[in-house]
Amino acid sequence: MLVLEVCVGSSCHLKGAYDVITELQQLIATHGLQEHIELKACFCMNNCIEGVNVRWEGQIYPLLSKENIVAFFTDRVLCKFH
Question: How many domains does the chain have?
């Protein structure tokens, strides 16, 4: 199972981490990937200035938001399953 982590530390929380988590939950369910992706919350990826941070396959993706999380999911996550 692959792990998708969203920072919920103070800075990311204030910049919309829970909106990002909600969107990712819906995207994972919509694409039937519940058995393949574990969505986790974590604290501080040491990139606080950049905004909501997501770690996928060992790489940190900053500046994610409710508005751009679909593009991230399509470009970075879905490609692993096609």
Answer: 1
